[in-house]
Amino acid sequence: MSNDISIVTSTMPAHLKKGTNLGNENISSEHLSTPRLKQLQQLSNEVDENHSEYIEGAKVGDFINTVTKEDYGKELYLVNVHFKEEFVVWKQLEKGGGLIGTFPTQAEALQKLEDENLKVVKLATRLRKDYEKLYKELREMVYPKLGEEK
Predict the structure, then answer these.
(1) Most buried of 1, 55, 84, 115, CB within 10 angstroms?
(2) What is the dihedral of CA 16, 21, 24, 29, to 10 degrees?
(3) Which pTM was predicted?
(4) Is residue 109 part of a domain?
(5) How much is the average pLDDT of 29-41?
(6) Are 121 and 149 members of one domain?
(7) From CA 119, how far away is CA 111, in angstroms rounded?
(8) Residue 8: inside a domain, yes or no?
(9) Which domain holds residue 118?
(10) Same domain, 97 and 128
(11) For residue 58, which of 73, 43, 37, 68 has the smallest C-alpha distance?
């Protein structure tokens, strides 16, 4: 039996009512992580004993909290208190995987995917040009023009 006492009040101290956010000036959405309920699958890192994200005792089909890594087992009883539709964009597993971002509309999510694809195309174009330049320089070193000595 616990002797802990909790006092619940609806009043807030005056210094908190002002909403100064002192101490939180440098915190942005990039520093925060929204907890998600995740059902583990065969390829989930959390069930792979050789992966850094492995959770001791986690099994395929279990539900976990993505922030606390708490394993809730295979069954949950949930009560929705808030519903928010978001469109989540993930990086392809072959390209390193990971969350790119969440967006309030499908159009914004698709725009982000298009922007990411354009970045890949620009990088591929630059790499191609670098390759062609290097190939040309190597070819000139290996096969110098007639009459020239290097």
Answers:
(1) 55
(2) 110
(3) 0.46
(4) yes
(5) 86
(6) yes
(7) 12
(8) no
(9) 86-150
(10) yes
(11) 73
